[in-house]
Amino acid sequence: MLNRANALLGANWTLHDLRHTAAYRMARDPELVLTDVQWVLGHAHLTATQIYVPAGRDEIVEAVQAHHQRQERLARVPTVPAAGYRALSLSDLFGGSW
């Protein structure tokens, strides 16, 4: 069947290629535990299965942008000292405006 599909598509995929594709897709499924993928693939060590979950460039850029957006939101929240602390004393100790 794979040979017929390859001939029809002009491809040269192997069963091993299909195994890698399946492993990659299963490992990236957020509802599938990586240890289950490990079991399906028959890997003795989880580290062998983890090669299928490296973050791609777009995912890394998205994560870094989300981090900076969170930091921006946190920076806008005014910090209020706990009751009993004088704002001037905290400013002298730590700098900034309290």
Q: What would you say this structure looks like, in words?
A:
By secondary structure, the protein is an all-alpha fold. The chain is 63% helix and 0% strand. The protein has six helices and no strands. It is elongated.
List the topology elements.
Blueprint: H1 2-9, H2 15-27, H3 34-41, H4 46-50, H5 57-76, H6 87-94
Please give a quick description of this structure.
The chain has six helices and no strands. By secondary structure, the chain is mainly α. The longest helix has 20 residues.
* Structural class by secondary-structure content: mainly alpha
Globally, the shape reads elongated
| Rg, Å, rounded | 26 Å
What is the subunit organization of this protein?
single chain
- Biggest sheet, open or closed, and with what strands and sense? none
β-strand number: 0
Helix content: 55-70%
Low-confidence stretches: none
If helices are DSSP runs of H or I spanning 4 or more residues, what is the number of helices? 6
Order of helices and strands: HHHHHH
Instruction: Give the rounded overall mean pLDDT.
Output: 88
State the distance separating the first and last CA atoms. Answer: 71 Å
Strand content: under 5%
Main traits of this protein?
63% helix; mainly alpha; 98 residues; 6 helices
